[in-house]
Amino acid sequence: MGPRAFGSANGMSGSLCQTQSKAMSSRIAGFCCVRCGANYPTDIEIDSKGCPSCQLSAPANLQPVYKQSRSSGQPQRHDPQGSLWRHASSLPCTFEDAVSLGEGDTPLLQAPTIGQALGVPNLFIKDEGRNPTWSHKDRFSTVAVSVARNQGARVIATASSGNAGASLAAYAARAGLECIVATFAGTAGPMLSQIRKYGAVVLPLVNKMDRWALLAEAASRLGWFVTSPCHSPVVGSHPIGIEGYKTMAYEIVEQSNGEVPDWCVMPVCYGDALSGLWLGFKELFALGHIDRLPKLVAAEVHGSLSDALARGVDRLDEQEMLFETLAVSIGTPRSTYQALKALRESSGRAVPVNNDSLLDLQKQLARSEGIFAELASVTPFAAIHELRKQEVISANDRVVAVVTASGLKDLDRSPDASETHQTFQTIEDAWQSLSSRQNMLG
Question: How much is the pTM?
C-alpha cells in the first residue's frame, strides 16, 4: 500500500509539519535549538533535520519555547484518570484537549535485592512498563497525538522497531486518526502483533533507511504528521512529543518526597527520553522545587555517546555494529546531540552494554523484584554494575534505574533454554516433581 492511499490532513499537500503552522498551541511562542540556541517561529518546518543553522556542523533538535513561565512539576488540577496530564500547565496542550489513556504516574519502587547484588543498596526502579501500552513511549505519544489532532491531522506516522509504533497506534486509535508504522525485518513479533491490533498499517521494509524515505515523501506530499526521525544524521523525534518525557522527572521527585537521586540511569537510543528527563529536572531546579540536579547515565549498545564524550566533540560518529544486539529497541549505531548534551550538562556517563548479561539480568530482576523488563530495559542494571566496579557510583548513592518497557514486548527474543514445560498426568506426578524443591514443601 503506497502513500497515495492516505490523504493529507486537510486535502492539500504539504511539508512534514504543514499542520504546524495552522494552530500551534497558544502556549508555544516558537522553537529554539538545543545546541546553538537559535530561535525560530512556530511555523518553522519541523522536518526531522533539526536546527537549520546546525545542520552542517552538528545536527541538533529543536525544543518548544513557552510564552509564559510555568510552575513545572506542580500538579495544577485533579485528573480522574491519574495521568501525566495533571501536569498539563507544563505541556504544549491543554488538559481539555488531551488524548489520554491514563499514562504516567508509574511506580517508583525500591529494589533492595538486585540493588544489593549490584553493590547499590539504595536502588529504585521507575517502572515505565506500567503505562497503557507497556512502555515509556506513551508519554511521548499522548502529547504528540494530542497536538496533531488539535492541528487537524488525520494521518500520523512513525518509523519504529516496536515500542514507539505500538504506542502511537494506540493513541491514534483513541484519537480517531489513521496510523502508519514503517518498520524493518527482525522487529520483535509481539510488538508487531500489538501494533496491528490497534488498527495501524504496518509497513515492514528490508532496507531500514527506506522507512525514512517513505515517511519523508508522505509528509511532503500528503501532510502526514510524522513523529519519528526520517532524515540522517538523526536529531531525535518530534520536539512536541519529547515534552511528555519531562513528567518522568516530576514524578521521580514527587515520589521521593522532594529528594533528588544522585544518578538516573536509562536505556538510550536517540536520546528523546533522556533529554526530556533532563529538561524536566532542569525546570524543577530553575523554579526552586529542587536544590540540586542528578547525574544521568545512558546505557547504550554501540557506543556513539561514549565515543563523543571521550573525544570531547559535538558531532557523533556512526559506530561499527560489531554484534547483533538483543536490546533491539536501542540498537542504533549513532545517538544524537540532544542525548550528548544532557550527559555533559549533568556530568553524566555513557556505558556501552553488550549481550553477555542481558538474559541473566532480565531473569534476576524478575525473580528478585517481580519486574519483568524488556531486554533493552535491563541495560541500565548492566551499566550500574559497570560504574559501580569503576567506583564512579558509590555504595551510598541513591540511584534510579528507568525500566522503559515490559518484557512482554520481546518474549520471542528472551527464551530460556533451561526451562521445561512438563505436563503431569496425575497429582502424584506433580507431587513427585515438587519433591526436588524442598523449599516449596515446608
Answer: 0.91
